[in-house]
Structures are given as C-alpha cells and as structure tokens.
Specification:
Layout: E1 5-10, H1 14-25, E2 29-35, H2 39-46, E3 52-54, H3 57-62, E4 66-69, H4 76-85, E5 89-92, H5 100-112, E6 117-119, H6 123-130, E7 141-147, H7 159-174, E8 179-187, E9 196-203, E10 208-214, E11 221-228, E12 231-236, E13 241-244, H8 258-261, H9 263-276, H10 286-301, E14 303-305
Helix pairs in contact: 4-5, 5-10, 7-10
C-alpha cells in the first residue's frame, strides 16, 4: 500500500461529492478516482479534485487503495463486496445495505481478508465528543425526532432506512440490551415506501425507544431526549445544544470541537486510521451497522398504515 492512500468514491451524487472533497483535503490520502454510470458526472467531480473518472468497476478498483460507496442504497452491499474482494477496505454510506444476509457476507469476507469496513453513521461522532458514551449508566427511555423536508434524494428506500436508522444506531450504541419488539404506524406520501413513521421499540431490559421520522415535514427537526434514573438529557442536533439534568458531566463546548464541526471528516479520518493500523476500529463497524440495519428492517415490518 502506497504511503499516500489513493481514495476512490463510487457515486457522484451529493454524498459522493462530500466524500470526494474529504479525500482531496485530508492528509495522507488523495482523491484518485470517481466511479459513476454517467461519465460526465464522474468527470465533473473527479477532475477538479485531481482524480480520474471511471464507468468500469474493475478499472476503478485497480486505481485505488480505499473505497467509499456513496451510490444508491440498494447497491451498497454489492459494490462494497466487490471492493473487498479486490483487496480494498471500504467506507459504506448508511445504510450498509438493504439485506442483512448480504451485509453479513460482506463483513465475513472483510474479516477473512483482514480489511476494514466502516459505515457512515456520523452522529456517533457527536456522542463521542459530548462524552455521552462515558456516562456510567444506561438510559431508561429514548425519544428521537428526525424530520426532513420533501426531497428527491434516497426515495429508493423507506424513511426508516433513510433517516430513522441514524437514531436506531444511536439507541443500540447506548444500550447493551437487545431489541425485542417494534411496533408503530407509517404513511406513504410521495414515494413507493414509508415517508413518515413512528415506532416504539422495546428492549429486553425494559429500555424503551420511540422514533419519529418524516421526509415530508414543513421544517427540519433533529432532537433526542434521553431519560436516565438521575435526570434527563435533551439534545438538538441542528443547533448542537443540549440540556442536561442527569448529574453526569458532559462536554459543554463539544460543538466547537473540530470533530463536531465536521462529523464526516472525523469519521473518514477514523476509517483511514484503522486502515493504516493506527486505530483499532472505525467509528462504526460493519457489525454495528448490520445491527442497525436488522433493527430498521424489523421496524419496517412492524409498521401499520396510519
């Protein structure tokens, strides 16, 4: 592996653009290639950042050392597995896939080859810099709201796999318990799958989590309330502010940290550090992403029309 890693991005859309710019700016890595079925889109993204445009997957994989998969979600696992089979560590945008068995096959292949698979659940970075994972207690209840305004992006999956999966991952990271039931209501408004959903998930230790998501709202909203035996923690992910009555110390200046200001950059830096052997793991591992996917699919199955 070269001293400067050659980064490649699959997908020249909005998220692919974010990842390509990170590879172009971060130390120890350079944007080498962008793959997209539309050659003009690949070239428009790659060339100003010093990379090459590709439409052929095999040729693309020959030109890179690490890969970001930022294509539409139904392609995530298949393209990530192709990268792993070519000997490349891979960062997969969330969700890691749409099928648990396929995602498990990806994780197993990466483990067999001693390669890193990371997934883009970036809110974990905020929890890390807040110090939330250092609280020596588990929450009793979680209430998460994640609303977005109508968009043409990510309509190939439900709002559960598009938006709710962020908060499902955070709930799983906060609790050592296993989810046992998932029930709720949803509505299909402007796509072929759930656009609005509200689900209550119970865990085997009594922990309860309520998730309220919409991609048809009038305004964006990203909040979470955590109830602990000693008090409550309320977080606004948009303003990066929180109110804490738990008695557990948290970092009041977390929003000013470089990681909080650029969660994607921090997440990719951790991925690259794991690839180089400088860190034991990325921010979110393949196994953790699979747990979030498994729970998301269970939530979908538990939804009834509102």
């Amino acid at each position: 592996m070269s001293e400067t890693l050659r980064g490649g991005v699959i997908g020249a859309g909005v998220f692919g653009t974010y990842h390509a710019r990170q590879y172009a700016r971060l130390p120890g890595v350079a944007l080498a290639a962008v793959l997209d079925p539309h050659p003009e889109r690949a070239a428009a993204l790659a060339m100003p950042l010093g990379g090459r445009a590709f439409t052929d997957l095999d040729a693309f994989l020959d030109a890179v050392d690490v890969v970001t998969v930022a294509s539409p979600a139904p392609w995530h696992t298949e393209q990530a597995l192709a990268a792993v089979k070519a000997g490349k560590s891979v960062y997969v945008e969330k969700p890691i896939g749409i099928d648990v068995a396929q995602a498990e096959a990806l994780a197993a292949e990466a483990a067999r080859r001693n390669l890193v698979v990371a997934c883009g659940h970036q809110e974990r970075v905020l929890f890390q810099v807040m110090g939330l994972f250092d609280i020596p207690a588990q929450p009793l209840r979680l209430e998460a709201v994640r609303h977005g305004t109508p968009s043409e992006r990510s309509l190939d999956v439900s709002v559960v796999l598009d938006l709710m999966i962020h908060d499902l991952d955070l709930a799983l990271a906060l609790s050592k318990a296993a989810p046992v039931t998932a029930e709720g209501e949803g509505a299909i408004l402007h796509s072929e799958s759930w656009d609005v959903a509200r689900s209550e998930v119970t865990f085997d230790d009594g922990f309860t989590a309520i998730f309220d998501v919409s991609r048809a709202a009038e305004a964006r909203r990203r909040t979470m309330k955590l109830v602990y035996p000693t008090g409550e923690l309320e977080i606004d992910f948009l303003t990066r502010e929180f109110r804490n009555t738990t008695g557990f110390p948290l970092n009041p200046d977390f929003a000013e940290t470089p990681a909080a200001k650029d969660t994607l950059g921090a997440s990719i830096e951790a991925f690259l550090a794991a690839v180089r052997g400088e860190a034991p793991r990325p921010v979110v591992t393949a196994d953790e992403a699979i747990r979030a996917l498994d729970l998301a699919l269970a939530v979908e199955q538990g939804l009834s029309p509102a």
